[in-house]
């Protein structure tokens, strides 16, 4: 089968012929229809410091996908050949304290699809049945292909109650844009999004932002004045990983405010912890999705009319992967889709 492979420990990706994945009695073989390009995939292509530590070559990349079930193992129940499915890209041990307690998203031994094992940038991908999400309701293939990052957005945005709250989102990348739509749909009063990319801020506006603020020439204090806020933001969703964004967020939270942090900083940075203590701010780290409560919430949100389609800005055939990756690496794009049926 054809697949996008990190063949060697060097920058670049290769479109190659590789064997179809083997499956066991508890596994599902999926014919991939479409995939989304993630920042993780860009790191692996560039072969940066993180990728050199995390990845062993050769490796088939990709963890955002939708496909059609082609084969099920003998022990698989409730999944049928022909089902339209996406996949939870975090494979957990099932044996640790958190897994046994049903908190699988907290597993210390998580293996990432397309990072620690061969992934979905291929004509076929194999997953344990427990990691397969069957789309029972009708869903657009492009949207189904990005259920993984959509789950990051939902997990982060719904970490705290949002009805009637004033929300600030730092970082208008694809997940920040989807979180904007979720927060607006979930009943937030104001949703302010910050970034330095005007094209991405425009996507945030299309997703429902009350105010999309370019922080290269303004700050959150100005956003508060423009919206008439008196005491600061109630909920912060940090998607950028940028020290200056985190500090600006903390400075503009109300006393008792709550911050969910998904953005991964490139390095350590100082923070005014005395302000966090005296303002009684709650900070929660977010990684991945809650299995499978977040997946259920995603499906229900879409059934309830949530529209995240503005986040998808381009589609390519998989053989055009180099152009697709180049566009995904810009500060202008949303989600980029690869079509594996062409």
TrEMBL record:
GO MF term list: L-threonine 3-dehydrogenase activity; zinc ion binding
One GO term (biological process): L-threonine catabolic process to glycine
Site positions per UniProt: Important for catalytic activity for the proton relay mechanism but does not participate directly in the coordination of zinc atom: 148
Keyword Membrane: no
UniProt entry keywords in alphabetical sequence: Cytoplasm, Metal-binding, NAD, Oxidoreductase, Zinc
UniProt remark on cofactor binding: Binds 2 Zn(2+) ions per subunit.
Domain Alcohol dehydrogenase-like N-terminal: 24-133
Known catalytic reactions: 2-deoxy-scyllo-inosamine + NADP(+) = 3-amino-2,3-dideoxy-scyllo-inosose + NADPH + H(+); 2-deoxy-scyllo-inosamine + NAD(+) = 3-amino-2,3-dideoxy-scyllo-inosose + NADH + H(+); L-threonine + NAD(+) = (2S)-2-amino-3-oxobutanoate + NADH + H(+)
Locations listed in the record: Cytoplasm
Cofactor(s) named in the record: Zn(2+)
UniProt-listed SUPFAM superfamilies: GroES-like, NAD(P)-binding Rossmann-fold domains
Presence of the UniProt keyword Lyase in the record: no
Alcohol dehydrogenase-like C-terminal domain: residues covered: 174-300
Highest taxon in the source lineage: Bacteria
EC number: 1.1.1.103
Pathway: Metabolic intermediate biosynthesis; 2-deoxystreptamine biosynthesis; 2-deoxystreptamine from D-glucose 6-phosphate: step 3/4; Amino-acid degradation; L-threonine degradation via oxydo-reductase pathway; glycine from L-threonine: step 1/2
A GO term from the CC aspect: cytoplasm
Residues forming the catalytic site: 40, 43
Coiled-coil spans in chain: none
Family to which the UniProt record says this protein belongs: Belongs to the zinc-containing alcohol dehydrogenase family. DOIA dehydrogenase subfamily.
The protein's assembly and partners: Homotetramer.
Cross-referenced HAMAP family: Thr_dehydrog
Function: Catalyzes the oxidation of 2-deoxy-scyllo-inosamine (DOIA) with NAD(+) or NADP(+), forming 3-amino-2,3-dideoxy-scyllo-inosose (amino-DOI). Catalyzes the NAD(+)-dependent oxidation of L-threonine to 2-amino-3-ketobutyrate.
Protein name per Swiss-Prot or TrEMBL: L-threonine 3-dehydrogenase
Organism: Streptomyces armeniacus
């Amino acid at each position: 089968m054809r697949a996008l492979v990190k063949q060697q420990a060097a920058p670049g990706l290769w479109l190659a012929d590789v064997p179809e994945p083997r499956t066991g009695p508890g596994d599902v073989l999926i014919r991939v229809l479409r995939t989304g390009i993630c920042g993780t995939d860009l790191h692996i292509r560039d072969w940066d410091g993180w990728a050199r530590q995390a990845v062993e070559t050769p490796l088939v990349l990709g963890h955002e996908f939708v496909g059609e079930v082609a084969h099920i193992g003998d022990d698989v129940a409730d999944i049928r050949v022909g089902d339209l499915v996406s996949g939870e890209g975090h494979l957990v041990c099932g044996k640790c304290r958190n897994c046994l307690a049903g908190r699988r998203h907290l597993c210390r031994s998580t293996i990432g699809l397309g990072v620690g094992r061969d992934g979905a940038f291929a004509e076929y991908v194999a997953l344990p049945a427990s990691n397969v999400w069957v789309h029972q309701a009708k869903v657009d293939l492009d949207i189904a292909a990005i259920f993984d990052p959509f789950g990051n957005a939902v997990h982060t945005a719904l970490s705290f109650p949002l009805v009637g709250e004033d929300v600030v989102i730092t970082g208008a990348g694809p997940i920040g844009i989807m979180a904007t739509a979720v927060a607006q749909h979930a009943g937030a009063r104001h949703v302010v999004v910050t970034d330095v990319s005007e094209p991405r801020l425009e996507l945030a506006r299309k997703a429902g932002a009350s105010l999309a603020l370019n922080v290269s020439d303004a700050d959150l204090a100005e956003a508060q004045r423009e919206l008439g806020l008196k005491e600061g933001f109630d909920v912060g969703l940090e998607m950028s990983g940028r020290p200056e964004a985190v500090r600006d967020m903390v400075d503009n939270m109300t006393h008792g405010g709550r911050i969910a942090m998904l953005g991964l900083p490139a390095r350590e940075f100082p923070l005014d912890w005395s302000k966090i203590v005296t303002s009684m701010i709650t900070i929660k780290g977010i990684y991945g999705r809650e299995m499978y409560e977040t997946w259920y919430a995603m499906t229900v949100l879409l059934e309830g009319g949530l529209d995240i389609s503005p986040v998808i800005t381009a589609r390519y055939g998989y053989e055009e992967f180099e152009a697709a990756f180049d566009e995904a690496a810009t500060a202008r794009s949303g989600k980029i889709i690869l079509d594996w049926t062409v």
